[in-house]
Write a structure and sequence with these properties.
The protein folds into 3 domains: 95 residues, no CATH class; 238 residues, Rossmann fold (3-Layer(aba) Sandwich), CATH 3.40.50.300; 242 residues, no CATH class. It has a 9-stranded mixed beta sheet, with helices on both faces. It is of the alpha/beta class. 63% of the residues lie in helices and 8% in strands. It binds guanosine-5'-diphosphate (GDP) and magnesium ion (MG).
Amino acid sequence: MLESLPENRTGADGPDAGLADLLNRALTCLDSLGDDYTDYRAGLEELQQRLSSGRFRLAVLGQFKRGKSTLLNALLGENLLPTDILPVTAIPTYILPGERLEAEVFFEAEERSPIRFVPSAERSLADFLGEYVTEAGNPNNRLQVDRVEINHPAPLLQQGVVLIDTPGIGSTHRHNTEVAYRILPQCDAALFLVSPDPPITEAELEYLMDIHQSLPRTFFLLNKVDFLDEQERLASLQFLSEQLCPICQGVPQILDISARKGLKARLDEDPEGWKKSGMRRVEKSLVEFFAHEKKQVFCESLQRRVHDQLNNLHLQLQLSLSALLLPETELKEKIAQFRQSLPAIEREKQAAEDILSGDHDRIVTRLNEEVAQIRARAREAILARLESQFLTLADTEELERVCRDILKDEIPVFFAPEMRKVGQIIQQEAIQLLTLHQRRCDELIEKVRQLAAELFAIPYQAPAARQSYLSYETPSWSSQLFISDMDPLGQKLSRKFLTRKYRHRKTVKRLREEGTRLLGLNVEQISWTLRRGIDESFRKYQAQLGEQLDKTIRATREAMEIALNKNESLASINAAREIRLGKAIKTLGELLLAVRKESC
Ligand SMILES: Nc1nc2c(ncn2[C@@H]2O[C@H](COP(=O)(O)OP(=O)(O)O)[C@@H](O)[C@H]2O)c(=O)[nH]1
Ligand SMILES: [Mg+2]
């Protein structure tokens, strides 16, 4: 059922070549610092390896028991991954493209050799997996498995894709939740699965926020709709959409499916069942995504990781340098001071968000005022023309025809420039307000950095460019947005049942009402379209800028704590190390700027 496509890897000679070069330079820079910073080195090398493999990692994420493993089985076309009504998957399972089916189990202790398995008539792969990846076979991961890799010949994978089955969040097995969070930086995009039983929970929304921060692209699937009748299905979709809206900065696309029915259809080779299960749409969306968007998302995903790592490393080096000069008690004191300042920063962030919310309301009021004026102008321009026809045309059929033509011709001609004009007014105001908010957030981010810099006597340098690069986008529209046809039903009825004179009077009344209604509808279209644009942009700004601030605080705190651990060994550190650190800090600063400018 899956189309077979040639392997289309997201190679490093495309737009990612710049990132590969930056990573090389960062690693060379680390070389100059000797054996320290091994974690950072490992992290950068892992990114280098991910970039050169060009393999795109798509993870299935969600709460336990939402049907993640069943969904993957449906996509793979076989009952491969263990599924159950009890929490099952405890270990992340990577499904890679391969010529034949085989599996390898990797252990946490790197020196321990992986176990390879090729299925045979005696033992199936599902059976083997049960021993390592399930709570029943491997309770609390007592076998200390790190991950399982499966090679699989499924056509979907041949496009350079790795699918990842993850343990869900929220089960009584806490280590599963930890794994579900820890895996996020390993992924490039996600299929986020929920189901109506029970509806999406607080914990899932929280998890989704983390996913959203970590990954550039998420698909939403509502599974198990086979439980529901049509009305319940629509209500579930509506509810889920409302819950996801604030996190997704806009109305999310949700595909409703029955993974279980999809799997059955695949096993029975029943294309109609596959379609009915909703899985055909999922498959199609994925094939299209892999063909058109995967490369870009891959680059964005790695850019985020490279940026995060270099940023952390940069700060870490700076703090290491200043830690060289500080006695331990003083260093501890400074860390405590930094912590004490955080609640004040949080309050300022809240205040900035309150201002933004007030700005949002103001701009909506402005939109409503503009829309009211358009309504008045439309009546003056178009209804007045109808009124003059009512006075001059005696023939009812003729009047009907002329009025319809007027509305048909005039509506797009009148509303298109009005829409453009009000769109521009709103855009200008929004840009002004959002830029102010951006500045407030950038200042807060700077404050955090400055605070750390001052506390640790790091020479503070304001960034050359602003951190955030957001823009206001007016929603796209065309003149097809406008409705210019009247309902023909009234015309037919009156022709059939009424006398001539009475009909004429009735027709005038109806045309007046219909004309007013049509104009009202178009005004609503304008209002709704622009309102959606405002809401989305403001939401996006608030979420992304807040996220940047949180990230900065986290990174700064971590770096200080690492500096504290290092402080004990500082006695032997000499001036040469100081010089080397200084040089590395400068190089990394340049690389960081380059990563931010890198375009995917
Ligand atoms: N009714 C129904 N049950 C499903 C569907 N998908 C999965 N399930 C069942 O939900 C339970 C959990 O599925 P599983 O794939 O193990 O969930 P996971 O923990 O998210 O991987 C199993 O009993 C599945 O058979 C579906 O579309 N409809
Ligand atoms: Mg599972």
